[in-house]
Fold this sequence. Notes:
It contains 3 helices and 2 strands.
Amino acid sequence: MRRVFSALVVTAALAAPMAATTSAIAAEPRAASHVVVVRVYDPYRHDYHRWDNREERAYRAYLAQHRRSYVVYRHQRLAERRAYWRWRHEREERLEYRRR
């Protein structure tokens, strides 16, 4: 009887921290901290761009305007990337000029 009681006490002592940890994790609110931010370096203008939904829409608009099929940006050839960034910066400048 004494061995069974000792085994139960040891088991309870070892299981208590694990139960508290899992309940604390379950109680945490799910934040958007798991979002991965991809930054793409533009070597021609020496700046970084966040590759988010906005940039993806601009990239797809560029491909549609130039009548090209969709290819993931990182799989594009360097010349195609350079052409995209040239177009992107010209487009930004045109949009800024219109806002004035």
